[in-house]
Amino acid sequence: MVPSRTLLVLLLSIDIWTNWARARTPFPKRNRQGSHRGPRFLDLGEWLIDLSANHLDEAIVLAICYARIVKVSSESIYDYEDRYPSLLTSLFREAEEREISDNGDMMRKVLELQDLLVSVGIPSIEGWLRSAERR
Fold first, then answer.
1. Under a CB-based contact definition with an 8 Å cutoff, are residues 9 and 68 in contact?
2. Is the entire prediction scored with pTM above 0.85?
3. Distance between alpha carbon 89 and the CA centroid of its chain, in Å?
4. For 57-113, what is the HEC assignment?
5. Along the 135 residues of the chain, how does pLDDT read in single tens digits?
6. Which of 9, 36, 110, 131 is the most buried (most CB within 10 A)?
7. Distance of CA 44 to the CA centre of its chain
8. CA torsion 106→122→47→115, rounded to 10°?
9. For residues 116 and 58, is the Cβ–Cβ distance under 8 A?
């Protein structure tokens, strides 16, 4: 399944907006019970992790498309909670399991995603790669 261009533009717009809002609100307002005010939005990284739990192939396609759009548009990906390293870890595990059965197709996609995320300049990805090299 290849996502429609409209869906990708919508996802990118939502992610840019939420990242913009977070960057300008370093201390979220809390109510008396300690929870955030207003609705809670999933960022795209969190949503991709949730999607990958049941729809791994769709998650990797969306992640690659999103990273390509971000790279071309010169936008930034803010990974506040290290979601992209978690996503890559789960994608690598699955790609290793499928490597023989799909002739390395998924592994190529995961490596493409990794390269795109590195080229966009996400610090958590760079740290993840350094720790992977040490192993």
1. no
2. no
3. 12
4. HHHHHHHHHHHHHHHHHCCCCCCCCCHHHHHHHHHHHHHHHHCCCCCCHHHHHHHHH
5. 455 666 666 666 666 555 545 554 443 444 444 444 444 444 677 778 888 888 888 889 888 988 888 888 777 777 778 888 988 999 999 999 999 999 999 999 999 999 999 998 888 888 888 887 877
6. 110
7. 6
8. -10
9. no
